[in-house]
Amino acid sequence: MLRRFYDRVIALAEHPQALWWLALVSFVESSFFPIPPDAMLIPMVLAKPARAWIIAAVCTAASVIGGFFGYAIGYFFFATWGASIIKFYGLESGFARFQQQFNDYGLWVILIKGLTPIPYKIVTIASGAAHFDLLIFALASLATRGVRFFAVAALLRSFGEPIRTFIEKRLTLVTSAFVAILIGGFVALRYL
Q1: What is the pLDDT, as a whole number, of residue 148?
Q2: How many other C-beta atoms lie within 10 A of the C-beta of residue 134?
Q3: DSSP string, 104-121
Q4: Which of 85, 134, 145, 150 has the lowest tally of Cβ within 10 angstroms?
Q5: Please, where are the H alpha helices in the chain?
Q6: In which band, very low, low, confident or very high, does the pLDDT at 155 lie, cut at 50, 70 and 90?
């Protein structure tokens, strides 16, 4: 079953509308969706390494634009939507600590957390809730999301075929590691 799913994702990555789907996933992940865009970015770059920079640019732009939506949720609707999103992920206590860090270190929190597996939606909502400077938020988001997605694209473009072979030979291991990293981001936020 996992092999069929992998083959389907690779086929979708080659689909003419794949960039639009990547943009949508990148946008919604920045404000409320639990699956990071890497789930589409990686197979898309593996399927079409010559388009790695375009794929990374779309992922970055949509993620930053989605970050503005997350910021708006925190800024205008934290008491209703923002708090509900935080509660949905079970991150209430982690969010309180994160807000304190945010109040103390603002820009550095965005720069560091934007590169880690900690869910980016928490950064965007907290930025809005703290009424953090929108221009600094935008520039920091562009920097961190750009570095993250372009680094992944560069590695896959440079070492794509061996990585693809490794993934295809050890699909269960790679999938398990990806899920563990995703869950680890949520756990880290809750307990750090």
Answers
A1: 86
A2: 13
A3: HHTHHHHHHHTTSSS-HH
A4: 134
A5: 2-13, 18-29, 38-47, 52-77, 83-88, 92-105, 107-113, 120-129, 134-169, 171-191
A6: confident
